[in-house]
Write a structure and sequence with these properties.
The structure is a homodimer. The first copy, chain A, has about 200 residues and is mainly α. Chain A folds into two domains: about 10-65, Arc Repressor Mutant, subunit A (Orthogonal Bundle), CATH 1.10.10; about 70-190, Tetracycline Repressor, domain 2. In chain A, about 65% of the residues lie in helices and about 0% in strands. Chain A is elongated and about 65 Å long. Chain A starts with 11 loop residues before the first helix and ends in a 12-residue tail after the last helix. At the A-B interface, helix 1, helix 8, helix 9 and helix 10 of A face helix 1, helix 8, helix 9 and helix 10 of B. Chain B binds a DNA duplex (30 and 30 nucleotides) through helix 3.
Chain lengths: ~200, ~200
DNA sequence: CCTTTTCCGTACCGTTCGGTACTTAAGTCG
DNA sequence: CGACTTAAGTACCGAACGGTACGGAAAAGG
């Protein structure tokens, strides 16, 4: 299988998982190469050989995060009704933001919001990745409107944006140390604004 | 008892205003002393003489920001009804987050969410400053419950937290370049969750 | 065995970071 | 006018930053 040369002495995926945690806790700028490689348990040069550079490592880390730590989002989209999609997403999100075994908050929010040392490339990359989720939700809600699962006249894009705003606002609170129960109390209120098919209409 | 020695050659408040913009756009970590002093139009040593160090300058900048750029929050608290307080706050907030003559978003959010190079002192400081606003709102809403302006049984702290979550979520969206109209559309939906006294109210 | 290929560790690169002596300029006071 | 006091400017500090050159170590192929 043409594996010539000395084989790699570490598990790249495991190392990436450690990098995710460091970026998550400290943000892109705040995570130094020393912080990262120490947590990954590998040498500086090994990291460069395996991942390219800090920015590429971050991209890989975000991809891994989206795949592993945001799996609940895809599960939520598979719920049968729009309301169930939204409730499932916000509930699982509140839990994910406050897992005791992981950093508080959301990597794609606290990874970097401001433009920082780079010219905003990191912030823009994260914004795009958040927007992808918003679009997926909007698409699901569009279907819900077509199916009569949301009242006619409901703007699915606006509703998706609202759900993401609640999710990201909760992420800010979680990063500040808010308790899981507090996030769920917010979700309780936020769900009141979600229009339902047969009950009262919204805006 | 007048000024001895050479008088200061710049307006400290004006320089602070420039510093606010740099921190706002680039965050605490992303704003270097060079970025700051160039924007402020003063020398490095002048900045240290006038403000102490970078962290103290940031504290002063956040205080100035709270006083100048968040004046709308105090005005909102003075509205006669709880609903008017919340709507006024969220509307003015959406406008403030997207002022064309200022950086997008909110200094107290994008100033620093992650723990970064310091051990989270900046993030904690900003979280505390946001929490102060949340408490002020909770206090106002507590009064509203007592006055019957919100339904009995309404949890004013939870509602205040919800409002702040919407505000901070909108700040995240604004930092990512969301349009003002989009933020207001989110506010439209968010307001649906605000409980009203049993008779009809609102605009 | 020896060569080839790749990985790992050290030691270092140039740059930028926040912060500071030290000198010079610009005022007031006696 | 000095004498004193304070600001402004230059030039620099040690440390940390992201990134790399290089030599030795470990595996596969012949």
């Amino acid at each position: 299988m043409a594996v010539r040369g000395r084989p790699r002495g570490f598990d790249a995926e495991a190392a990436l998982d450690r990098a995710v945690e460091v970026f998550w806790r400290q943000g892109y700028e705040g995570a130094s190469l020393t912080d990262l490689t120490e947590a990954m348990g590998i040498n500086r040069t090994s990291m460069y050989a395996a991942f390219g550079n800090k920015e590429e490592l971050f991209h890989r880390a975000v991809a891994r995060y989206a795949e592993a730590d945001m799996a609940y989002a895809r599960e939520a989209l598979a719920q049968p009704t729009a309301y169930a999609v939204i409730e499932s997403f916000l509930r699982a999100n509140a839990d994910a933001l406050t897992r005791p075994d992981r950093p508080s908050g959301c990597l794609s929010v606290q990874g970097g919001l401001a433009e920082g040392g780079d010219s905003g490339r990191i912030a823009r990359f994260l914004a795009d990745s958040r927007l992808a989720g918003e679009h997926a939700l909007a698409q699901r809600l569009t279907r819900a409107v077509e199916e009569g699962d949301l009242p006619a006249g409901t703007d699915p894009h606006a509703l998706a944006r609202y759900v993401m705003v609640v999710s990201e606002g909760n992420a800010v609170h979680a990063a500040a140390g808010a308790a899981r129960t507090a996030l769920h109390a917010t979700v309780d209120i936020a769900l009141q604004a979600v229009p339902r098919p047969h009950a009262r209409t919204g805006a």
